[in-house]
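Before relying on records like the one below, remember that each one covers exactly one chain. Contacts with other chains, cofactors or solvent are not represented anywhere in the record.
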Amino acid sequence: MKVTIITVCFNAATDLQKTLDSVLNQQYTDLEYLVVDGGSRDNTLDLLKHYKPLFDKAGKVFRYVSEKDKGTYDAMNKGARMAQGEWINYMNAGDTFYDATTLQEFFSQNINQESGVIYGDTLQIFDFGSDIAKASDYQKDNPVMPFCHQSCFVKADLMREFQFDLSYRIVADHDLFFRLHEANVGFQYIPVVVARYNGQYGLSATNPLMLRLEGLRIHHIAEKWYYPFALVWTYLRYGWVQAFKNHMPRRLTDAWMKRKRKFINENA
């Protein structure tokens, strides 16, 4: 089996249905789909039971588990341990593949044997507009992870070896890819739009200060002599952003977010 797609969720039945449909409608069939649910109390289980025969009819392996876990990254690690595919992709509830031919197109490309992480582009969706973000659009702010995790695939054995560090609340994915870089794992860009991702309400977008504070730890700044200065600078630079987003009129916060996303400005 080539690809395992993993969705972790909790009380997200409405959003989950979009993702289920997206995976079900993929023309690529050499895949399995795992849903790791945290013990939802909405109609998630009924939804999963409904979709099981639909996946069977389409010739796609579909498995799910519903039990209490320690949060998103714990569930993602659990999914990696369950995976039977060669590559793992994490698709959040509510996010979808770009179109029905995405996986077919992506895995028809020339993939280097030494690559442990392969990634493509992302259609980022905001309240003020949407457009395709390429690696170059991510590069300035995040050279370690010039993609969103919905648009990347990691070798399953690497996911099981490195795993997400549960001590991070927001950027365990960034930490994972930082450690993969340090281990000299090969990263390869594939020029295919992989996912549709809502960037307006993600954890990173809604918790900018915590994002930066955890980033200091990932990059070992917390171990440096200048850490107190970096900490002060981080609070001065990003501490006001959350308050700004929470209390300013929506049109102002949207304008500010759009200004930082040149790929939307240039094509809007």
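Strands lie at 3-9, 31-37, 61-66, 87-90, 96-97, 115-126, 129-133, 152-155, 186-198.
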